[in-house]
Amino acid sequence: MAPLKSMEQEYPIIDAAFQKFCASHGIFSVEDLLMCDIDALMAFADKEPKSEKLKQGFTQILTIIDGLHQPWLNGLDLLEDAKWNKHVLSTGCKRMDELLQGGLRKGQLTELVGPSSSGKTQVCLQVASSVAKMQIGSVLYLDTGNSFSPRRIAQFVHKSSGSVLNYQADHIPLQKVMNSVLCHSVFDIFAMFDILHQLEINMKSQIHKADHQVQLLIVDSISSLITPILGGSGPQGHALMISAGFLLKKLAHEHNLAVLVTNHMVGGEGGITKPALGESWKSVPHVRLLLSRDHGSNICNVSVLKHSSILKYSTFKRNYNILLLHFPKMNMLLVGKHPL
Amino acid sequence: MGPQSWIVGDESAKEVLDRVFMERPFLLLPPLHRVPLRVGNVVELVGPSPSAKTQILIQAAISCILPKEWNGVQYGGLDHPVMFIDLDCRFDILRLSEMLKHRIMEATGSMKKRGGELKNAEKSISDRTRKPDIAFDEKLFIFCINRFLYVRCSNSFEFLATLKLLHHRLWKEKETHGNSVHLLMIDSIGAFHWVDRASTFLPLRDNDRCRKSLFLQGVSEAVVQEIKKLLRVHPMLIIATKSTILGDRYSSTSSEVKWNFMKHNFQDTSDTRNVTRNKLQLLHREYMPSVWQSFVTHRILVQPSDDHFATSNHQNHSLHVLEWLLPSLSFLDKFIVTDSGVSVVS
């Protein structure tokens, strides 16, 4: 944040005298002002010879601070925003949509947790193809492990279960569908930050036309970007992880994106596997899905661990709604639901 | 004013009580009803994610924004606006609106049931008024949801800027709604812990001894100070959630953590708590700076449990356990989360 000195040009009232007064109380930047008790400072200013001018300076500072927080809203504003801007994107998978109450909600961060080869990337590719096929905007796919497969997406587009998607969509040429999936290879968290910041700038300046607006952002997998920086006792790794989470949520909220990330599993104590991004990450995603696959079987199970809009997510968690994903058939067929 | 009038006193004990109850009323917000909470208290809801913490906040918010009575129907609300500061940035309005609709329908439904027991003449009146009744529901819904005030923050500076300007906002709301905000909710207070812990002030000058080097500490101090200042002008009950972000850290080999582990263990055994409790406490290691800890007046621990509870309509709900840590109460409350919100089962 800006040092007071640099603000003098824009706001002449923050002049040398004001800066000197602030400096005498150890305040040099807007940051410092946020951390201090402004009322107490103003009381001090009263005793100064030119108190009137200092007070004007503080009024200016308060308007600057007023611009630093996010807008005040009420429930009705939020409800309107949810109604008009935060739609759900179908995953192209009927049972999965049912499980998620319609699909991936824009403005929310959905996480897939699961051990290796439990179908996380398959779900990502399926969702990408489904959204691309709808032709409502583009899909940004950040690939961290070279696991992105355009061929697989093409297969999904061809063979997507007709019952879920619009029949009309089948007539859209494959090239057009494939054009709306943008893939970036990302191998470290800083590259991801670069891309996300660029995306934010693009969305803000609206370089893209409305129909090319990014609708869905996929990071497969976010855990492989973050785990390398988590080691050691310093808090920097965790700080980057939480910042990445806030950036994704901010993008999702402000630009009405659905965000889908994956998180792999690692061996924990006593041989129990746990998500690579653990306790601190838990408070980041809105929705958390657990994927698992029985040994030697082609069937994947999906259950909801957390869902911010389902009231009874706890019952979902216990009942283990199971989705069956058959891999050899090249499309996701949902066979049934088996409460445990 | 002579010394005589000093001794005479200004008001009787009854008057004091009446005034205090007016100015600082008790807020009964189940499942947080074991200890009477009142305006001015700072309640911390601790628990892993997910453990229905936000759910409890939403429940409390709805109890607060609902009116006591609306068109002859008792809703039993506190009739005050609430302020929700979202630091986790994942609040879902749809959940609140669903629950609010449920609560309104429950209240009108029970009213109608009672209407059926009344005399026929009166029943026909209630039948005739049924249609406008439904229209009024929508009005009530809008009326209530308008009193839910929300702001989100995605870093500590935004949070501080929000707190600094909250004062003005609360005055404005008081003017528009006629009632002042009695409940301020923060979800969740430790959201920026890691980011703040990694940040330090960049010294602008050499030999700068005035500047605080511990950013995390400084932010907490500023937050507590701002809230204290706010409470002086706007008496409010504060409920803040805190997720246990350090859950799996105790197994770390870092010496700092080990030391904390031993210290904590020692404190707990000196508290003559049993071994399981010890482990429980360990999982919920404190990470907020002491200035916040001492600011908190009530602390409640919520946890999901493996037990289930079957409701009357044969739905299985998993039980959550609620325990009062400050003041320490010996029994546990169990609650379930249903469509209409949190309900205590034992």
UniProtKB/TrEMBL annotation, chain A:
SUPFAM superfamilies: P-loop containing nucleoside triphosphate hydrolases (SSF52540). It comes from the Eukaryota. One of its GO terms (molecular function) is ATP binding. GO terms for cellular component: microtubule organizing center; Rad51B-Rad51C-Rad51D-XRCC2 complex; replication fork. It is found in: Nucleus. The keyword DNA-binding applies. Involved in the homologous recombination repair (HRR) pathway of double-stranded DNA breaks arising during DNA replication or induced by DNA-damaging agents. Belongs to the RecA family. RAD51 subfamily. This is DNA repair protein RAD51-like 4.
Automatic annotation (TrEMBL), chain B:
One of its GO terms (biological process) is double-strand break repair via homologous recombination. CDD domains: XRCC2 (cd19490). GO terms for molecular function: ATP binding; ATP-dependent DNA damage sensor activity; DNA binding. GO terms for cellular component: Rad51B-Rad51C-Rad51D-XRCC2 complex; replication fork. Residues 17-245 form the RecA family profile domain. InterPro entries: P-loop_NTPase (IPR027417), RecA_ATP-bd (IPR020588), XRCC2 (IPR030547). This is DNA repair protein XRCC2-like. It comes from Quillaja saponaria (Soap bark tree). The lineage of its organism: Eukaryota, Viridiplantae, Streptophyta, Embryophyta, Tracheophyta.
